[in-house]
């Protein structure tokens, strides 16, 4: 809560304390944007301050006013939200169904599916305002029961595949954060750690907000979970959280990239000390795949050794993720190995792996992976100077990236096409593709890719066409 917001709450409290009897509702109606759970919290804090200063009568008045305000919030159809009554009824119904069904998704999901229009910001307002206020009035045991029901619902909505995914994740996050107001570490450390773990997962999947901020919040929550989940006491929970933390560090935007990747490697290796192949084959394979991802990006150490370790980790994963049992995972592993083989200079072997993965992706709706496989097939053909095949595949990947609105993928394809046009001698076409790619990279604030394109423009300006024709496409997109 910022200072401006706090001062607004304090001003509203003063108005409510000094206004003539009967005018409270009108004042609240005029300040609807301030009527929320935080206002109730500030009222409680101010009452405590008044009591500590010896003004018990004023404190009692404020607490009584707070109770009345709570009742007004819960009963009014105009204060919490313009359409709050329908949302409130739906929210209460969701909680009842979740509780009565003992958290059965076969019962909860149909209710959500029939009310997709209500899974939006208004629902989050109800969750944050009504639920928070209600929980603060309940006896601790009852409040904990209600908080756990909200937690179960948050688990459901985070996995819910219908509706708006971005809204679903924000609803889940709001639910976990409300739980943490009731279930605290001192009295229930294991449950508190589980909520922190779920919250970290939710922030990793969050779509709204800045990605860098979401990753920091995810790392913070996961580290809090690990303050309880120690290896001696919660062996599997500890290892599972290490895998998630490793992924968060591998994706982290802030901090030193080298250090982030080392932390990711460390977390995966710690997880593998528990998740062994004989006891946890699938999770072991996931950790091996993630380890391969981290080694493929690693900055420290010998580049060749990191590359070989990455390939070895992916091959370990493929021992479990077979084409027959796990076709999608198998395709992911083959695609990753294919990229690294190409990077190592084994172009034909790498191309074969990439094409095998694409055969699987064409049977699925995973357009992101399909486009990535096609792009890297194009890049490999470009390296092999199969320019017609390279151009065809760049165009195919670009069409998919355009369809799914993946700006980074669009820019990568246009960069590849620009370099290819130079190789063919079509300089004007090359400039157009590269300019479009540069505009996208400016939007993405990817300075490294911008610098790479600017270097090409500088060479073009000097008419060093022969040098340009030999440009290696490997720098266009990782």
Structural summary, described in words:
The protein is an all-alpha fold. It is 76% helix and 0% strand. It contains 23 helices and no strands. The protein has helices spanning 3-18, 24-30, 37-52, 56-75, 84-100, 105-113, 121-137, 140-159, 165-182, 189-205, 211-226, 235-251, 257-272, 281-297, 303-320, 327-344, 347-361, 367-383, 387-404, 407-424, 427-444, 447-461, 465-469. The protein is elongated and about 85 Å long. The model is unreliable at 77-83 (pLDDT under 50).
Present the secondary structure layout.
Layout: H1 3-18, H2 24-30, H3 37-52, H4 56-75, H5 84-100, H6 105-113, H7 121-137, H8 140-159, H9 165-182, H10 189-205, H11 211-226, H12 235-251, H13 257-272, H14 281-297, H15 303-320, H16 327-344, H17 347-361, H18 367-383, H19 387-404, H20 407-424, H21 427-444, H22 447-461, H23 465-469
Helix pairs in contact: 3-4, 5-7, 5-8, 7-8, 7-9, 8-9, 9-10, 10-11, 11-12, 12-13, 12-14, 13-14, 14-15, 15-16, 16-17, 16-18, 17-18, 18-19, 18-20, 19-20, 20-21, 21-22
Q: Which class do the helix and strand fractions yield?
A: mainly alpha
| Low-pLDDT windows of residues | 77-83
Helix content: over 70%
Integer average pLDDT: 90
